[in-house]
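Just curious. Invent one:
>
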Amino acid sequence: MTSEGTSSISLIVSSSSQKDHTAYSSTAFALAGAFHGDFLRCTDEAQRLKVCCDYRDKILGISKFTDILAAAFNDAFPRSLRESVAGKQKKAWTEFAGLVQRQKKSQDREAQRLQHQTCIISIWGKDVFEHYGWHRLPLESSRLLHSVACTLRHWDSAVESMNEVLLERHERRVTQYQNNSKLIGEHPPGSKIQDCRSPVERQDIQAILARLKSNNLPVSPRTDQSKDRVYIIDGTPIRNYGLERDVFGMIVPHGAPGVVRESSSPTVQASKRRK
């Protein structure tokens, strides 16, 4: 399998650090998005290995920011595939690993932030990343979201976990009257993202990671028992609370840009993105 439209991607940067980062982000994000699409189209392990090797070679062939790119893609390339190679391929992966180690020593916080964000795109896709405006996330939030993506690599699993913590936060506000809990779509004044269609806050990401660490993710989402699996709060469908699913399956306030308008199964949109 080959990547369509990515063979001409290259990094052209100026001497300015800010311009360097801008050049890196536009090119790396495009490369990560292309990888995500190519990897999704694979039907077996041999194809997946080939795609990973192709993108590894693209990264090794870039003269600038190679170490940042290598670190960004390191978690996107399944470790099990890399461990199955030998000969020239093994040597190339060893070179790649050396770049990853070099980037781990970097003190450039902006480079670290872009590295985490590139990996998120390579796993969940550029369309999801851009829709929620996650390029605005600061370093620590980007790092935390990167950790979630590495563990919940299938978007439908990730968004169900996000919805679970979002609903718990919303429920604490509307049924338990905890005013310090934000409603879905509300953001603290200091948040880098204020868009109601991007509801996930740093505390939500931390809650997901805590559950992953304790192996305490819910077996099934907070839904009713009908075949349509309608999300509920205190036994009531979320639409009664002014909430609905958006095009990527996340729960947002009713009327937010990009929401799903039909009243059918909330899992329809998410299932389209299953790897």
Q: What stands out?
A: Residues 116 and 146 are 6 Å apart (CA to CA). The longest helix spans residues 17-40.
